[in-house]
Amino acid sequence: MADIQRDKLTGSLRRDAVKKHVAAIHVSGKLTLLQRKLSNVLLLNAYDTLASQARHQIDARTLCMMIGYNSNDFQTLKQSLRGLAETVAEWDMLDEKGRQEWGVSSLLSYAKLKDGVCEYAYSPALADKLHDPKVFALINLNIQRRFTSGHALALYENCYRFVRTGSSGWWSLELFRRLMGVDGSSYYESYKHLNAKIIKPAVAEVNKTSNILLEPETRKRGRAVTDIRFKIKENPQLAILDLDDGEGHRHGAIYSKLRGLGVSDRLARQWLQTHGEEAIEAKLDYVSKRQNVESMVGYLSAALKEDYGAVGQGDAPAPQSAKAQRLGRVQQAVQGRSPTQRDADKRLFLSRIEDNVARADFERFGWMSPVNAAEIATFWEEFNPGLFDGIEGG
């Protein structure tokens, strides 16, 4: 996944990954897939203020959509929040002075829904552990959205932090069952059942879905399997899918013209990948004929964004076009949201974009992004059914 230019976003939702403390990961317990995703998003939302604020808030509708719930399914959200409040987190680790420390806490000390806002808190002791920057795993929320199995996501969370060392290290089967949330089940006391129902399906989904590849290894005492570890390496297939940087565009004549105008290498490749050489050449010709232009690059950017010159010789398309009407209604919908909600809306939309060029275009142009016009319309119609009613072709 491409990194979000986080300096262009504001608020506590500006990251696309959450630092998740090892202690929390190891004991997150028997959580459903949705509860596990919910736990990660709540931590992401709260992370910047864990040490300074006792309570945290997030727009409930946005939260539902980030997790994959129906945006109005507050009953499911209530059940999942209840599950987090009833789940015990336990840590057993060394403190800053090298002394062994054991502790226990509920994952959430409380949660409530009021006026469309989800408010929640962590116990002070757990918040301190969650915010500890020394030991954490980086959980990418764009990747976690792809998982369909809670066991697979649990395995990914527990293995990803070891990607640089190449191995999870040996876990006893007792610990592994606990990490997968199946401790206490007599059925999974059998390694044959554990392997068939948990290990093999989870490894297959991690390898297919995420940015790492896992290979399990076992250790035996006699004929009985006693320990398991996972060899870990980066997934080159995912990297190939995610790393299309427009390298080939550097060899074209239009790229050279853009660079000659002062357009940056990255932006030139982005424009070429988004609009194509023919469209950019037409806009270059159009811009070159304009008078009293202070910034050629700025004007060219606007011409590409607003499709200047597409209708007659004016500086903008017809104001009453379906495209213009849709943009106007999107702007109205955005203005109707609070500043906190607007920030969450942007973060949510970015979490749904997987194409690097589309992400970059949204980061640059926001809700007016031409590359994401169709997706933006779909996004806002989910929030406001009927938003584009009456617009021809809308």
How would you describe this structure to a colleague?
- With 394 residues, the protein is an alpha+beta fold.
- The chain folds into 4 domains: 1-138, Winged helix-like DNA-binding domain superfamily/Winged helix DNA-binding domain (Arc Repressor Mutant, subunit A); 146-243, Arc Repressor Mutant, subunit A (Orthogonal Bundle), CATH 1.10.10.10; 245-317, no CATH class; 320-394, no CATH class.
- 32% of the residues are buried.
- The radius of gyration is 25 Å and the shape is globular.
- The two termini are 31 Å apart.
- It has 18 helices and 10 strands.
Throw out a few tags for this protein:
single chain; 394 residues; alpha+beta; Arc Repressor Mutant, subunit A; 4 domains; 3-stranded antiparallel sheet; 18 helices; 10 strands; 15% strand; disordered N terminus; WH-like_DNA-bd_sf; DNA-directed DNA polymerase activity; Initiator_Rep_WH1
Low-confidence blocks of residues: 1-12, 22-28, 134-138, 239-248, 311-320
| Individual helix count | 18
Mean pLDDT: 76
The CATH class of the largest domain turns out to be Mainly Alpha
Sheet/helix structural class: alpha+beta
Number of strands: 10
Proportion in helices? 40-55%
